[in-house]
Design goal:
alpha+beta; NADH Oxidase; 2 domains; binds flavin mononucleotide
């Protein structure tokens, strides 16, 4: 199977046959996950393979009663370590690295006749207690793995033009994301910034780690404190969301572990050498 076939064949599978996965088969897809790139090649992932039916039942409960979590013969808990490593770009390395590895696994599975579903809707504290995961380790994702008992139709994707642009951030995207008119967006570009955008929990974690002097040297650069991200969901995404599970905004907000505060937007360029 070539790469584009593998990408096309990957779809979220939420119904599984009652059939065990051979250890060798599972190992071969996990090994592909272990080939993923990672910042500083730290490979900050640890994968827990959960086959025990009672634990899978408990995980299904922690995953907001998504029943297929209990029905899949294997649930993978993709964990991240070295959680203090924040890259120069402001993103925590483990979240990115573990996600890349999980994605490799999802793409490797169909060639072995296996289906997967990424589970992000789970209560991490509950999952950690079930699996005995220590405090300084994060569970980035759960992944159900098994032989598909369904062949779901491919889900839709936004158009190429609505997601890809060249050289400059297009006004049309700001219009879509902010709900402002084109004129307002154009005028805004010539005005000085009024107030900082809310920063993400990850950037806050980096900033507070840098403040307390407990993080890596990288986390102390001004750019970490100044980077901001617009996390608003576009209308197109809201309307085409095919997920059959509920994501409550309040839960998501509560789960962001770092305390909310804003950091000033600064333009000072960092001279520190990027390591990640
Ligand atoms: C970060 C992430 C979290 C997700 N969480 C869940 C989940 O909790 N439950 C679920 O059924 N699907 C979950 N999904 C699967 C998405 O709903 C699915 O990927 C999306 O609808 C596109 O469909 P496809 O994977 O079939 O292409 C998640 C996917 C990602 C990448």
């Amino acid at each position: 199977m070539d790469f584009s076939d593998a990408v096309r064949m990957r779809k979220s599978v939420r119904k599984y046959l009652d059939r065990d996965i051979d250890e060798k088969k599972l190992r071969s897809i996990l090994e592909i996950g272990l080939r993923a790139p990672s910042a500083r090649n730290e490979q900050p992932w640890r994968f827990l393979v959960i086959r025990d039916p009672e634990k899978r039942k408990q995980l299904a409960r922690a995953a907001k009663n998504q029943q297929f979590v209990a029905e899949a013969p294997v649930v993978l808990a993709a964990c991240g370590v070295n959680v203090d490593h924040v890259m120069t770009c402001g993103q925590p390395a483990y979240t990115v690295d573990v996600s890349v590895a999980v994605d490799h696994i999802t793409l490797a599975a169909p060639a072995e006749g296996l289906g997967t579903c990424w589970i992000g809707a789970f209560h991490e504290d509950e999952a950690k207690a079930i699996l005995g995961v220590p405090e300084n380790v994060r569970i980035v994702a759960l992944l159900t793995i098994g032989y598909p008992a369904e062949n779901p139709p491919p889900t839709s994707r936004a158009t190429f033009e609505s997601r890809v642009a060249t050289d400059m951030w297009p006004d049309a995207w700001s219009v879509e994301l902010t709900g402002k008119s084109t004129e307002e967006v154009e005028n805004k570009k010539t005005e000085p910034a009024e107030k900082p955008l809310p920063s993400t929990a990850a950037q806050e974690a980096a900033a507070s780690a840098a403040d307390s002097g407990s993080s890596t040297a990288e986390a102390k650069t001004p750019s970490e404190k100044s980077t901001t991200t617009n996390t608003k969901k576009s209308t197109a995404e809201k309307n085409s969301d095919p997920r059959p599970y509920a994501v409550k905004k309040a839960t998501v907000a509560k789960k962001a572990s770092a305390p909310k505060k804003t950091t000033p937007v600064r333009n000072k360029k960092t001279t520190r050498k990027a390591k990640a």
